[in-house]
Write a structure and sequence with these properties.
Length: 173
């Protein structure tokens, strides 16, 4: 595969098409010789191993069917491949923001979001999930200390349990 640069838009295109795949410019036919640049079509002097106009290796100087001489290196054709990079994991900023909001408010939804973020491969999401879990641990420790010192009476937990179950008749003021 020999690549050529389009003189109109500058993109690189395979020579087998005859037209630029980006803008449709028709490539002029190149008489293939060992001194012709495969990229820009410039005729180079006999002693040049690289194009004097664009610097591309002159691939037809050493065809692959001939054995190279002892002091000569073989330069193959220019091959351009598109490597598909896997997309980086990206966790939504909205989800991280909601996780903080619900973690600070102390809801179970905040705990679920914090656990979800802690299990992501994205290091940013994992860091925020750990911070949100730390907020929950802080709340649990704070409630335990307040309960142990007597600042939270035991009836509060009973009333809370009754409220969660929907039984409002037995809640004591």
């Amino acid at each position: 595969m020999v690549m050529r640069r389009c003189p109109q838009c500058g993109s690189t295109t395979d020579d087998i098409y005859g037209f630029c795949i980006k803008c449709g410019h028709e490539f002029p036919k190149i008489e293939i010789s060992k001194h012709t640049c495969p990229l820009c079509g410039f005729q180079n002097p006999d002693e040049a191993d690289f194009c004097v106009k664009c610097g591309t290796p002159l691939v037809f100087k050493n065809p692959q069917n001939q054995a190279p001489q002892s002091n000569e290196t073989v330069i193959g054709p220019i091959v351009i491949e598109r490597v598909n990079q896997p997309a980086e994991p990206h966790t939504s900023r909205l989800l991280i923001l909601l996780g903080y909001l619900f973690s600070i408010l102390g809801g179970i939804l905040g705990l679920i979001i914090a656990i979800y973020l802690s299990t992501r491969k994205d290091p940013v999401a994992r860091k925020h999930g750990h911070i949100q879990l730390a907020i929950f641990v802080f709340y649990i420790v704070l409630i335990a200390v307040l309960y142990a010192t007597g600042n939270i009476p035991p009836e509060v937990f009973t009333n809370y349990r009754q409220m969660i179950l929907g039984n409002f008749s037995t809640i004591k003021p």
